[in-house]
Amino acid sequence: MPPKTSHDFLKVAEQRLNAAEALLRADLTLDTQYIAGYAVECSLKALILEKTVPADRPDKLLRITSGATMHKSETLLQELRALNVSLTPELAKRMRRFDWTTDLRYETGRRDRGETIGFLRTCVEIRNWVKGQLS
Fold first, then answer.
1. Considering its fold, how many domains does the chain have in total?
2. pTM of the model
3. Does residue 1 lie in a domain region?
4. How many CA atoms lie within 13 A of 71 on its CB side?
5. What is the pLDDT of residue 100?
6. CA-to-CA distance for 97 and 46, rounded, in angstroms?
7. CATH number, position 29
8. Any idea what the Cα angle at residue 24 is, between residues 19 and 30, rounded to 5°?
9. Whether 20 contacts 35, CB under 8 Å
């Protein structure tokens, strides 16, 4: 069942992070990054829904779950800024190096393990920050 609430999106993010950690243990670094990127997407969507006025949430849910641009972190961060929510300076700095895209699904091979570990840590930190922002 697709997520409908902030809690649902955060639950999906948790599952994606668990999957990414399992993939990293198997040394599937590209796959780790691909799946972990969805954890960030779902975490940001959880926060967007949480910070949206309850009466506007059904429309916002439809908006953030439609179209390819809603997979992009920069688009989701713009949505958050419109709700007067910004990442911490440290997370914003780390996100500037965040090159995740759904196009990873077409790539093969492996990525640098150290880079992948750093990427996964960033994903976990973003999820943790979002959890702290939820009321």
1. 1
2. 0.94
3. no
4. 13
5. 87
6. 22
7. 1.20.120
8. 95
9. yes
Q: How does DSSP classify residue 111? A: -
* Tens-digit pLDDT string for the chain (135 aa): 899 999 999 999 999 999 999 999 999 999 999 999 999 999 999 999 999 999 999 999 999 999 899 999 999 999 999 999 999 999 988 888 778 888 899 999 999 999 999 999 999 999 999 999 996
Find all residues with CB under 8 Å of 132, minimum gap 6, and list them.
Answer: none
Which residue range is the domain that position 116 belongs to?
A: 6-133
| 126 falls within a domain | yes
Tokens matching residue 46: 């959880």
Single out the residue of 54, 121, 128, 115 nearest to residue 87, CA to CA. 128
Go through 16-31 and write b for each residue having 16 or more CB atoms within 10 A of its CB, e for each that does not. bbebbeebbeeebbbb
- Cα gap 96→102, rounded to integer Å: 17
Residue 103 lies in a domain: yes
